[in-house]
Structures are given as structure tokens and as C-alpha cells.
Write a structure and sequence with these properties.
The complex is a heterotrimer of chains A (450), B (286) and C (329). Chain B is mainly alpha-helical and 286 residues long. Chain B is 74% helix and 3% strand. Chain B has a domain at 23-217.
Chain lengths: 450, 286, 329
């Protein structure tokens, strides 16, 4: 190739260098350290979420909840201005790392939050382990972030996959007397965790089997063959669909089209019947049950205040994703207030977060476990019901208070078990280790609304 | 026969219907012009999205099908006449151009339509449970199969009973000679490309009505289309029919018995064909 | 002669110095971006070599890129094999797969070759996406950390950058030698007129297979760096849109030029960084650039510069950029 071309190429490289130098006009210290810009009177919060992709409705709701909390304090806390930088990771784990790097290394954020899916949480968590910046997952429910992969900068005021499902499984086995469940689940970490919690609760309550059929998320929208393959003559008490988002809508539609409604009860995981996806589902699934930490007909003063503000700003009722984001952001803001805006000592900031009073959380009182920085809160069992206009909503039927991420188990015992996957826990309750089946029952089922 | 086996077969036929509409246009375009329209998946997606908007606005599903098809046909025409024709001659630039267009379409779609997966709403008048041979099956899927058969018959008639069709078939066999015989090969190219685009748009509305449309689906659909035409043979309508039927059943039974590998399974017949008979089941030696 | 060469040599030295000293004056994120340029550069070189020298457009390279990442994740992270075993096994696996695939695909006519390689790339992707027992499906494998070699911890970004830079320069040099070697010339011949080459007695088929292997090797190398740098390997790394992105880098730079892929990678990665801050519609912008490039300058940026130099385009700019060539005529 000609020399002239090479010169031009070299010039391009040189130009790149100059661009690089210009882009980092503010002097930095050694690359491993990131100094946040709070000397300018501003606190930066990085927000990574899935704004495109299968769960993008959750990403949108998350942002809305967070913005509501920020607006309530006028984007100011501790005397400093709060700036939020939003990044879309397109529900791709690699992008999540790339964006996290950008936020931490280039934008020098003081706090990192957001995160919708379980895997985003784990991936970003991996990266953040040694960065010394608080990580506040909002919707990401992979339990290991506050269990086996825990690091002290993590504070999760929301939930884990297993938390509500353990309660649900136990109740179905003890109160409803179910013995065998047929589960169809999306094959990735969050549904594994949900299934894990469900199986533990179900088997502890006297269940016999949770047959698990896994399918890869995102490549299948035609569930009719899977639905047709469900055996109706082998004594299964119910079918549990362990998935959410667009896949859930399609599954439920096809469930109805193939005439399965009424043939066998349908159960959902926590997110299956969440609005707004619920609005796209056929009306004949009324009666389907699912567990979560919110219910659409909560009627406490705290919830109503939140709901009214949300409806006023966005025009529709909030669901769990928005509430989680709202209260997480509120916790962050209150913590910043508590340290009077000085976020230079991150450990002190995390301490402040753990001490924030969360008893006025919209969905119910929340306490933070000081060892694992996870939430201890209410679980609601809900039933899909039609309101007087014919629209579907999740009506709360039972409440269980003070549920921790470990359920009734001793933390050391819980974490000594293998991580929830698609082959663990076992489908047959008889294959469970004895100590996992013997934990005392601590769940008190209260009628909803008390 | 076991009720669920019947459902599996019917599901396979439904899948085959969509696959056929997808593959038929692409195979003709490839057979004639030796260009793979890498934007085929994006055309599908856009057609589906346009159909979605039409249904949302008017509730008229048949109108949505027509709108989806025609709008993409128009897009295909503009694209072919003003861009593809400039780089005709070399295979690579044409293919690259279609790649570029697919990126633009897929990316812009997110601006105008919801980023999460959506499905077209089929009115209840078209989608009601049908009791057949002891099972319940949605009528809409039978309609899909019917539309697909209709398209297949129409294509057959065009290809084998019209002069245009004869020219296309001759062009598939031997491009240079057809030009030498005085047929305006550029016009034939345009017609076939537009036809392929029309079919892609139809497929988008049809597929988007019982599956989902979402920002990533264009590459998945493109892959399906390529598998269909590689297996069936490029340039062969009959090949597309046969390969769609085979692949539809594989998808359906795969989803029932091995959902973890459902997508992966469809590549097996393609790999076998490539190793043993690279021109496809019914294709001609290139 | 001395006078003419001196400015050129000074320029080269200046570039080398700037590149080497980068971590000392640039921010962390900039270093990370340059590392991305380096490993995508490997992938772009891989595809560019095959197109430019061999005349074959392949869509499987991204799968090879991801293959080594997965092997490192599976053998290195999960089964504890130490460096350099996973890397070597990964590269060996890539070469073996490329051999088998190449032997089947290379026989095919150009566009069919493209479709076959695309389909095989998608097979890898589909398997990675759906198989959870081994490859963890959509979640991929997390927590991959670069090794500590000879006392140097490559987890440190600056160290990683230098290591990658050294590897890249070596790889470039090797590829340059291959391109200029008798094999390279023969490969060019098979690109230009395969039938004539066959008539002259050259084994066109095997030449192409070897070219495919070389290309796969470079893709695999890039994949090793990528996996260590991001710490994660997922099916998204090998999905079709990623392949298209890299193809664009090659075409934008200029596929028929040796330096084309590198130029293209620098431009596209920097654009990504710049544009992401403004809008999420990066793909649209890239797509439009792609269209313009294919329509008006199919030989990419370097081709454009070449055309200017030879007076075929924009004569006024020519005077400014290439005063010597302009005045010489």
C-alpha cells in the first residue's frame, strides 16, 4: 500500500490520540481509582436498565418510579444537586458491563443503580466488586447478590427471586393441598431462583413433585406444542408458568386459545401477571394466583399517596417495578440527606442507607438485614380478578409479614446448598436433603388488608 | 391418534405457513438475481409493525395484511430502483447494501413502535376455538394456513401460467441468455424483488399475529428464511414448500420434546443437505 | 532521499510513542476504548483478510471470536485450567472447527459461501443461546479474569492495554508477512481469477481453506482478549448484528487495503463512544454511513483517499492532502 496512504492512516491515529487526550481534560490519578465529581456540588447517580428488549416495560416503569422520587425532592439532597445518567444495556449482559464501565470510569458516578433482570445484576455486581461504589439493584432479583456473591457496597431494598415464591409454594401445599405441580419456565437465572424458592416451600409443606420443563427465553413465541404436551391425566394439581413479559402474554393467550382454561388451574411467577402485560391477556384467566410484594388493590395511606402521585404524573397505576425503583431511590436520597451531602466516604454512605427508616414504604414496611443488606418485608398472594369495567388486576388475598430472603432457613444452611439452577433443586421432593425439609414454619397467613 | 400429536402436527403446519410465505419470495429473488436480501427479516419486521399500527387504528385485520404487504412492496421498489440498481454487477456491494438497510430499518423501528415484544390483535371474529377431531384449536391458525396455500397457488400460477413467470423461470436458469433473447431483465429483477418484499411484508403481519414482533426478531427471521431456502433449494418454489413443511414439523415437535434445542434443531437438516447436496433439495447446480 | 523519509519516520515514531504512553496521559475509559479497538481490530483483520486477500465474505468469524471466549470461560474459569492451556485449546478448537467448516463451505459459489457461513455462525449462536447445561444459555459465563503472568497482573487496565498492544502489533506484522508472501500472492490470484489459477495447477480449494484457517485464528485471538477484558461471554457476543457491525468496520475502512480493517475499527468504535452519549440510534447512523460508503466509495475510506490521490475524485482536496502527487503530474 502506498506510503501516502500510510501517512494518512497515521494521521488518523494521531487524531485519535488527541481526541483521547481532550476527552480526559480533567486530570485523573492512577487508572484504578475513580474520583467522583462531588467537589462541584453535584452528586451523580448512574442508572443502568433494560430500555429495549423483552423486559423493556419493566425498564420504563423503573425509570418512572425513580424519577417520581427524585421530583419529590426537586433533584436535591443534602444540599447538593442530583444528576442521574441513564444507560440502556438492551438486556444484554455484555452491554451492561460496558455501560457500567462507562458510568464508573468515564462519568465517575457516586452511586450505581437500576438493573431489571437477575443476570444484569449479577454481571454488574461482578464488575462492581472492587470499585468501592454503592450498588443499589432495584428490580434485579438474583439472590446471590445479597448471598453468596455479596460484597458490602451492595444494598438491595427490594427482593430476591425465591423470597415470595417460597411463601407461595408452602401455602399451596399446606392450605390448598396441592401435591404435584407442572412447571414451564424460562431457562435463565431469575426463573431458576423463583422455581428454587417455590420448590423449597412446596416440598416443605408436604408437596410431592414440581415437574420442571425449561425453554430458552426470547427465541420461542409459539408455546402451543409445549402446552399441548402438558399431561392432564397424571394428577397434576396446577400448571405454573414461570416466565414474564412478552413470552408470558403469548403463553397465556395460547393457553386460552387451546382451551386449557378450566381444565387445570394456572399459576404464575411473581412477574407473570404484572401490569401492563396483564392488560394484553385474555379475560378468562380470572382466578389465577401469583405471589409478589405488591398487589394492585393495596389500600394503605402510604400506598395510596404513592399511587396517586404516580397516576397524576404518568396516567396509569404503578406496579412493583415502579414501586421498587421509587423506594430504592428514596432510600438513596434519604441517606444522602443523612450524610449531609458528603458522599466521599462511601462506606459511611452505605451505613446511612442501612439506617434509613423504611417503615413508610408504599408496599408495606421494609427493614434491611444488616448483614446481607437485603429486604425483610411483606409478601402478598394475589388472584387475577376483573374489576367492574372488565379490566384485569391482581387482587390481594393473603398477607405474610416479615419475610426475609432466607425464608425460614438459617442463612448458613441456605447458602451451603447449591445455587438454584435448572437441575437444582430436584423436581421430586423426596430428593431434597432432609434439613431443607424440616425448617419450622414461620409464615403466618393473614387475610389481605389487615 | 393421541390428541396432543394432532396439535403438534397442526402447530407444525402453522409454522410452515409462515415459513413458506417468508421463503418463497426470497428464493425466487435469489435464484434470479443471485443476491440474498439480508433485509428480508427487517422487511418482515417493518411489515408486521405497520400491520400492528393499522389494526390498532382500525381494528381491521385483513386491511392490516394488505397494508403491511403493500407498504413493504413499495419500500422494496424504491430500494431496488434507486439503490440496488446502482451497484448491480458485483455480488458483494448488493448484499452489503441490503445489510445496511436492514440495520437502519431495525434501528428506526424502535423509535416508532414499542420496544417490548408486541402481537397484533386478531379480532375475535377470526379467532375462535374450533373443535376438530377431538381437540380445540384456534381458527385463526387455520386461516393462516389457508392464506399461505392461497399465496402458494397464486405464485404457482404466476410462475407457470404467465409470460412474466416464464421469463422469471428462464432467468433463474440462465440470466445471460434471457437478456440476449430481448427480455428486459432489469424489469424482471425489479418485479421479483418487489414481489419478495410484498411477501415479506405479508409474512410479517401473519407472523406478528400469532407470534411476537420485537426489535431483535429481524435477525431470527432472516435466519429462518435462509434455512428454508438453503434446505429447499434456491430458486425453487416447490423446494420452499417442502422445506417449510419439514422445518415446521421440526420446530413444533422440537418445542414439545426438546425445547432447550428447538431453535438449534432446524439447522440439522440444513447441515445435512449442505454436506450431501449443496444446491438444496430441489435447487439447481449453481 | 534522506529528506523525504525523515518526516515520515518522525511521524511513525511519534505515533508509536503516543500509543505506548497512552495509559499515562489518558483516562481509564479511553484506555478501555482503545482495548476494544484492539480486540475488535483482530476480528476486523480476520474478516478483512478473507475479503480483501481471498475474496470470500464470511459471517462465521464472530462465532470463532466467541468460541475462544467460551472455552476460556468453561475450561479456565469453571474447571480451573491455568494459562495458557484454555487459550491454546480454544485456538486449537477454532482451527479445527474452521477446518471442518471450511472444507465444506469453500467449495460453494460466493454468495452461497456467505449464506453457509452465516448459517453456521447462527448455529453456534443458537446453541449458545439455548444450551444451559454447558454454556449457560442467555446468561453466559461471568467472572472471567485475566491471568497474572510473569508477575504482571493483567487485570490492571494499563497492563492489559500494553499486553494487547504488543499482541496486536505482532499479529499485524505476521499478517503483513503472510499477505506479502508467495502464499498471499497466490491467494490474491485465486480471488481475481480462480479458474486461471486452477488451470495453472494451483490447488485453489486448499488455498482457500488455509486462508479461512488464518482468518479464524485471528478471530479467535481477538476473542481471547475480549473475554478477558469484559469478563463475560454471552450469546450476544456472537449474534448476527455483531457480525454485521464488524463487517461494516472492514468495508468502511476499505476491504481491499491491508490497513483498511484497522482504520475502520478505529472510526467505528470511536463513533460508538461519541454517538452513545448523544443518541441511542447508533445503528441508524452506522447504517447510513454504510449505505453512503457502498454507493459512493465501495473501497472505503482508504479507497477514497486513494482515489483523491490519483486524481479521480475531488481534485481541489488533492492539492491540499497530497501536494507532491498533485504537483508531480
Amino acid at each position: 500500500m502506498s506510503r501516502k496512504l500510510f501517512s494518512i492512516f497515521s494521521t488518523l491515529i494521531v487524531v485519535s490520540m488527541l481526541l483521547a487526550a481532550c476527552a480526559t481534560a480533567t486530570p485523573t490519578t492512577a487508572p484504578a481509582e475513580s474520583k467522583p465529581a462531588e467537589s462541584t456540588g453535584e452528586i451523580k447517580i448512574g442508572f443502568i436498565s433494560a430500555f429495549t428488549g423483552v423486559f423493556s416495560s419493566f425498564g420504563k416503569m423503573q425509570k418512572e418510579g425513580a424519577e417520581l422520587a427524585l421530583e419529590e425532592v426537586g433533584y436535591t439532597a443534602g444540599g447538593k444537586k442530583i444528576t442521574v445518567i441513564y444507560e440502556d444495556d438492551q438486556l444484554d449482559n455484555e452491554q451492561a458491563v460496558t455501560k457500567a464501565k462507562k458510568l464508573v470510569e468515564q462519568d465517575k458516578v457516586d452511586i450505581l443503580t437500576g438493573l431489571v433482570s437477575g443476570d444484569e445484576g449479577l454481571t454488574v455486581g461482578d464488575y462492581m466488586k472492587d470499585k468501592g461504589i454503592p450498588l443499589i439493584p432495584m428490580y434485579s432479583a438474583s439472590e446471590d447478590m445479597t448471598m453468596r456473591s455479596f460484597f458490602p457496597m451492595t444494598v438491595r431494598a427490594t427482593w430476591t427471586g425465591a423470597q415470595s415464591m417460597d411463601v407461595f409454594g408452602y401455602w399451596l401445599a399446606t392450605e390448598k393441598g396441592y401435591k404435584k405441580i407442572y412447571m414451564i419456565g424460562e431457562d435463565y437465572s431469575y426463573p431458576w431462583n423463583q422455581a428454587g424458592g417455590f420448590k423449597r416451600g412446596f416440598c416443605r409443606g408436604g408437596g410431592v413433585e414440581v415437574k420442571s420443563v425449561w425453554f430458552p427465553p426470547g427465541t420461542t413465541s409459539d408455546f402451543s406444542s409445549m402446552i399441548a404436551a402438558i399431561p392432564l391425566d397424571q394428577g397434576y394439581d396446577a400448571v405454573l408458568y414461570n416466565g414474564a413479559g412478552g413470552d408470558a402474554v403469548n403463553f397465556i393467550k395460547q393457553w386460552s386459545e387451546l382451551g386449557m382454561v378450566g381444565k387445570i388451574p394456572l399459576l404464575g411467577q411473581s412477574n407473570t401477571f404484572e401490569k401492563p402485560d396483564l392488560d394484553s391477556m385474555p379475560k378468562d384467566i380470572v382466578g389465577s394466583l401469583s405471589p409478589h410484594h405488591t398487589a394492585d388493590d393495596l389500600n394503605t395511606p402510604n400506598w395510596n399517596a404513592f399511587k396517586d402521585a404516580f397516576v397524576k404524573k404518568y396516567g396509569y397505576s404503578p406496579s412493583a417495578a415502579s414501586e421498587f425503583a421509587y423506594m430504592s431511590m428514596r432510600m438513596i436520597l434519604r441517606a444522602i440527606e443523612a450524610v449531609k451531602g458528603d458522599v466521599s466516604d462511601k462506606a459511611k454512605l452505605v451505613d446511612a442507607m442501612l439506617k434509613v427508616d423504611l417503615s413508610d414504604t408504599p408496599r408495606g414496611p421494609v427493614a434491611l438485614d444488616p448483614t446481607y443488606h437485603s429486604a425483610i418485608e411483606n409478601v402478598y398472594i394475589r388472584e387475577v380478578t376483573a374489576d367492574d369495567k372488565g379490566a384485569l388486576y391482581n387482587k390481594g388475598i393473603l398477607t405474610v409479614k416479615n419475610v426475609s430472603q432466607f425464608g425460614p432457613y438459617d442463612p448458613a444452611l441456605y447458602m451451603s446448598q447449591p445455587i438454584d439452577g435448572n437441575t437444582y433443586p430436584p423436581d421430586l421432593c423426596a430428593d431434597f436433603p432432609a434439613e431443607m425439609l424440616q425448617a419450622a414454619n414461620i409464615y403466618e397467613y393473614l387475610p389481605f388488608g389487615k | 391418534m393421541d390428541a396432543k400429536i394432532l396439535i403438534f402436527i397442526l402447530n407444525g403446519l402453522t409454522q410452515a405457513a409462515i415459513l413458506f410465505v417468508l421463503g418463497s419470495g426470497l428464493t425466487l429473488a435469489f435464484g434470479l438475481m443471485r443476491v440474498v436480501n439480508m433485509a428480508h427479516g427487517a422487511f418482515y419486521l417493518l411489515g408486521g409493525y405497520i400491520g400492528y399500527s393499522v389494526v390498532k387504528a382500525t381494528g381491521n385485520w385483513p386491511l392490516a395484511v394488505i397494508a403491511g404487504g403493500l407498504s413493504i412492496a413499495l419500500l422494496g421498489f424504491i430500494f431496488e430502483r434507486f439503490m440496488l440498481v446502482r451497484v448491480r454487477g458485483g455480488d458483494l456491494p448488493e448484499t452489503l447494501l441490503t445489510v445496511a438497510i436492514s440495520m437502519i430499518i431495525a434501528d428506526l423501528a424502535v423509535v416508532f413502535w414499542p420496544p417490548q415484544p408486541i402481537t397484533l390483535n386478531v379480532p375475535a371474529s377470526l379467532n375462535f376455538p374450533v373443535q376438530v377431531l377431538g381437540i380445540t384449536y384456534p381458527s385463526f391458525r387455520f386461516i393462516l394456513m389457508g392464506i399461505s396455500v392461497l399465496i402458494a397457488v397464486s405464485l404457482y400460477l404466476i410462475l407457470y401460467k404467465t409470460k412474466l413467470g416464464a421469463a422469471v423461470r428462464a432467468g433463474v436458469d440462465d440470466r445471460e441468455t434471457v437478456s440476449a433473447l430481448g427480455v428486459n431483465i432489469q424489469v424482471i429483477y425489479t418485479v421479483v424483488f418487489v414481489l419478495a418484499a410484498l411477501l415479506a411484508g405479508f409474512a410479517g403481519v401473519l407472523g406478528g399475529s400469532y407470534l411476537q414482533l420485537s426489535p431483535g426478531s429481524d435477525t431470527t427471521i432472516l435466519t429462518y428464511s435462509l434455512v428454508v431456502i438453503i434446505l429447499g433449494g434456491m430458486g425453487s418454489l416447490l423446494g420452499t414448500v417442502v422445506s417449510s413443511l419439514i422445518l415446521g414439523q421440526i420446530l413444533s415437535f422440537g418445542l414439545a420434546y426438546a425445547p432447550q434445542y428447538s431453535y438449534f434443531l432446524i439447522f440439522i437438516p440444513m447441515a445435512i443437505v449442505l454436506a450431501l447436496r449443496p444446491q438444496g433439495l430441489f435447487g439447481k447446480q449453481i | 532521499m534522506q529528506n523525504k523519509n525523515l518526516p515520515r519516520i518522525l511521524l511513525l515514531v511519534a505515533i508509536a510513542v503516543l500509543l505506548v504512553l497512552l495509559p499515562l496521559y489518558a483516562g481509564q475509559y479511553t484506555i478501555t476504548t482503545f482495548i476494544r479497538i484492539l480486540y475488535f481490530g483482530f476480528l476486523a483483520l480476520s474478516i478483512g483478510f478473507l475479503i480483501g486477500q481471498g475474496g470470500m465474505v464470511s459471517f462465521t468469524q464472530t462465532a470463532f471470536f466467541g468460541f475462544t471466549g467460551y472455552v476460556i470461560g468453561l475450561l479456565g474459569l469453571e474447571r480451573g485450567l491455568a494459562f495458557p492451556l484454555p487459550e491454546l485449546l480454544g485456538l486449537a478448537g477454532v482451527l479445527l472447527t474452521a477446518l471442518l467448516l471450511g472444507m465444506v463451505a469453500v467449495r460453494a459459489y460466493k454468495i452461497v459461501f456467505l449464506m453457509i457461513t452465516l448459517a453456521f455462525g447462527q448455529i453456534f449462536w443458537a446453541f449458545a443461546q439455548q444450551n444451559t447445561s454447558l454454556l449457560h444459555g442467555w446468561a453466559g459465563i461471568r467472572g472471567i479474569r485475566p491471568p497474572v503472568l510473569l508477575g504482571i497482573d493483567f487485570y490492571n487496565t494499563a497492563n492489559f492495554y500494553w499486553g494487547a498492544l504488543v499482541l496486536f502489533v505482532l499479529g499485524l506484522y505476521l499478517l503483513w508477512r503472510i499477505t506479502k508472501s508467495p502464499f498471499g500472492l497466490v491467494l490474491n490470484g485465486t480471488r481475481e481469477s480462480p479458474r486461471r489459477m486452477a488451470a495453472l495447477g494451483y490447488p485453489v480449494y486448499w488455498i482457500r481453506v488455509v486462508a479461512f484457517l488464518i482468518s479464524a485464528f485471528y478471530a479467535g485471538l481477538g476473542g481471547i482478549l475480549a473475554a478477558y477484558n469484559t469478563g463475560i461471554i454471552t450469546p450476544t457476543t456472537i449474534q448476527l448484528s455483531r457480525t454485521i457491525w464488524v463487517l461494516l468496520m472492514v468495508i468502511l475502512g476499505g476491504a481491499s487495503y491491508f490497513w483498511g480493517p484497522v482504520v475502520g475499527t478505529i472510526v467505528v468504535v470511536w463513533l460508538d463512544v461519541l454517538v452513545s452519549g448523544i443518541t441511542g440510534r447508533f445503528n441508524t447512523i452506522i447504517g447510513i454511513i454504510f449505505v453512503i460508503t457502498v454507493l459512493f466509495s465501495p473501497n472505503g475510506l482508504l479507497g477514497l483517499l486513494d482515489d483523491i490521490r490519483r486524481g479521480e475524485k475531488f481534485p481541489k482536496i488533492r492539492k491540499f492532502l497530497f501536494p507532491k502527487a498533485a504537483s508531480g503530474e
